[in-house]
Predict the 3D structure of the following.
Amino acid sequence: MTEALIMICTELGVSKPPDVDLKSALKEAQEALGENPEGNLKAQVQTLVNLLGLEVPGWESAAN
């Protein structure tokens, strides 16, 4: 999950782990996208991965 969140933050140009904790990075990424997905931390990260169309090794896309 950390790798996925790093990819999201890099794509959006916002703070990423290890500079900030996972929850702070996720919140900043959500604010940058104007999205507020529901669910647990992993579900929220998965939603952002899908919105950005990122290919994260070891993660299935929502289309699968």
Observations:
- Helices lie at 2-12, 22-33, 41-52.
- The mean pLDDT is 91.
- The two ends are 18 Å apart (CA to CA).
